[in-house]
From TrEMBL:
Domain of life of the source: Bacteria
Start and end residues of each LicD/FKTN/FKRP nucleotidyltransferase domain: 27-255
Descriptive protein name: LicD family protein
Gene3D superfamilies: 3.30.460.40
Annotated organism of origin: Streptococcus shenyangsis
Organism ancestry: Bacteria, Bacillati, Bacillota, Bacilli, Lactobacillales
Length: 284
């Protein structure tokens, strides 16, 4: 894997922080709750900012807050930014939202021919109540994942990386055939099913929230008593919100989370194409 140069990664992180500040600004205006999740939450605690080799920021919102954010974001959004969601971008391959920086490019291989915005971004994920009952929990997850896979295959005709051998080439051809078959299904129907199953247990007084966008069940699962009350914490030069019992949250996700991984695992996830636009030129 070709990794970033130090200057390149530093600028990507600065631009992502710029986007995060815009999300926080809008949330404060409308009293919308958000919280950092995954590696972003880990970075806040272990490094008081980005994990040094990390190249993304992930933000979570409970479904009510997520809906409120999408309702008001265009009203407040600065001209430098672009919200990508299924409703704002008809070619978006994602069922969740991304806030992007215009004039930049952060393009994955599978999206190289897609007519859509692909700038440097911060992911914004909805968290829904999930059932305490294990079998119901699993059924909900499988239903959401089934329709999410249909949606991605409908929106993206190609695989995630260039085929390197005959077998991979055949798989790429099969994927393209599936894609064009799924184009016969209205995307609104698939999105409706994702939304329906994701919201199924909201308001039913379950004990936990989960983000059902992740392909492994309970990867982003958090008890309400772990999430609340949210707490403030340093992240680079700003203050952000985290799950209140961040120790429990991070232990569940990473085990001994203060322990650094081996050197060979300290890499980012460089996409197919990167262009920092005028931001990169200004830095020079």
């Amino acid at each position: 894997m070709i990794n970033y140069s130090a200057d390149e990664l530093d600028m990507i992180q600065k631009l992502e922080l710029k986007i995060l500040k815009e999300i926080i600004r809008i949330c404060k205006k409308e009293n919308i709750e958000y919280f950092l999740i995954g590696g972003s939450a880990l970075g806040a605690i272990r490094h008081e900012g980005f994990i040094p080799w990390d190249d993304d920021i992930d933000v979570g919102m409970t479904r009510e807050n997520y809906d409120n954010f999408l309702r008001v974001v265009e009203q407040y959004l600065g001209e430098e930014f672009y919200l990508q969601s299924p409703s704002s971008d008809r070619n978006s391959p994602y069922s969740y939202s991304k806030l992007m920086l215009k004039g930049t490019l952060f393009l994955e291989y599978a999206q190289r021919n897609l007519k859509t915005q692909s700038g440097i971004y911060v992911d914004i994920f909805p968290f829904d109540e999930v059932p305490d009952n294990e079998s119901e929990n699993e059924r909900q997850f499988k239903a959401v994942q089934f329709y999410k896979k249909l949606y991605v295959m409908r929106m993206l005709p190609t695989v995630s990386k260039a085929p390197e051998n005959l077998i991979q080439g055949l798989k790429a051809i099969l994927r393209r055939c599936i894609h064009y078959s799924l184009r016969l299904i209205p995307k609104s129907l698939i999105l409706k099913k994702i939304d329906q199953f994701s919201r199924l247990y909201n308001g039913t007084n379950q004990s936990a929230f989960a983000c059902l966008d992740f392909p492994v069940r309970n990867v982003e699962y958090v008890l309400k008593t772990t999430l609340y009350p949210l707490i403030e914490h340093k992240f680079e030069e700003i203050t952000i919100l985290l799950p209140g019992d961040f120790h429990q949250y991070l232990t569940t996700h990473y085990g001994e989370y203060m322990k650094l991984p081996p050197l060979e695992e300290r890499v980012g996830h460089r996409p197919y194409l990167i262009d920092l636009g005028t931001y990169g030129k200004e830095e020079k």
